[in-house]
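Sequence in, structure out. Go.
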Amino acid sequence: MRLRLIGDVVFTTPLIRALRRAYPDARIAYLVEEEAAPVVQHNPHLDEVIIAPRTRGVRRIADDLALARRLRRERFTLVLDLHGGPRSAWLTWASGAPERIGYDVKGRRWMYTRIARRARELRPRHSVLNQWDLLEAIPGWSGGRADETRDPVEMALEATADARMEARLARAGVTGRDDLVVLHVSAGNPFRRWPEGCFAETAAALAAAHPRRRVVLSSGPSDRDAATRIATDARVRLGADAGRIIDLGEFDLQELRALIGRSRLFVGGDTGPLHIAASTMTPVVGIYGPTLAARSAPWRPSTIPTFAVEQPDLPCRPCDQRVCAPGDFRCLTQLTAASVIAAAEQALGGM
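Output:
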C-alpha cells in the first residue's frame, strides 16, 4: 500500500519485484489512489491494482469503510504499509490481515503486527532503503537486500501511449532524426521550483548547441502558464532557431513515460517526472533544492548516466519544505543555469 505521490510510488516498485522473486506463487495486489495508479497499473509483477478513492468529509468515511470491507473479503495474508500515514495505517489494520507491517510511528504502531524503525530526521539515506526495512520485517524474508541493479525502479510502458506520443511528436514536426531533450519545468510545491529564467536559459543553450536537438518542455497542469512563459523566453533567446523548442501541451503519465523513453536526456527537479525518467534507460540530470540526491536520486544501475546538481554545503538543507528559513530559497535560486547545462552536456556525451 502506497496511496499517493508519483515519485514515492515509483520508489516502491523495486519492492514489488523483490516480493515477486521471493514469493513467485503469491497473489500480489497494490492499493493506490488514482493519480499515481499509472505507475503500477501495468507492472508485470502485480496481479491486481486496487484504486482507493480520494474523497473528503462524510464521503471519505463511507468510501474507506467500503474499501476496508473489500480488503477484509479478499483475506490477504500480509499487508505492507509503505505510506505510513493515518489513513493507510487504518486501512492496513482494517484489512484484518494476520500480518500487518508498517513504520514505528507514535499513535499508529498498534495497528501493525510488526514494525520497522523510521528515522524522524531527514537523513541522507535513500527512500528505497527506508522502505526496504519493511520487507526485512517480513517473517523469514529471503528476497535479499536492496540492490539498484537487480531491483531498479520500473514503470511499464503501455503500447498505445507510445503510439500516441509518436503521433504528437510527428504533428509537432519532430522526426526520427531529431535528438530529444525533455525539460520538466514544474514542481509540486514552491520549495522545489527552479527559477523560470534558469529553465529558459538552459532550454535555449541546449537547443542551440546542436542542429538536431529539440527541447520538449513538460509541466504539471497547474504550471502550464509557467511552461508557456519559459518556452516564449527560450524562443526569443534562440531567434531564428526558435523552432527547436517544442511545447506539446498537457499529456498523461504514460505519455510522459513514452516521451522520456524516446529522448536522449531528461532534465528536471526532484518531482514525480524525474522518478518516471529513472524507470527508463534515458540519462537524467536532477536539480535538487531542499531535498538530497542521496535520498531521492534515481534508483537504477550506475551504468546509466545520472547527474545531480545541488548545493551540498548549505546548512539549511535538507528542510521540511514548510518554511524557507533564509527566506530566499537559496538552495534553488543560487543554482546556476551554467551548472545544469554543463551536467546536461556531460550526460549527453558531447552529442
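Check: The first strand starts at residue 29 and ends at 33. The longest helix spans residues 57-74.
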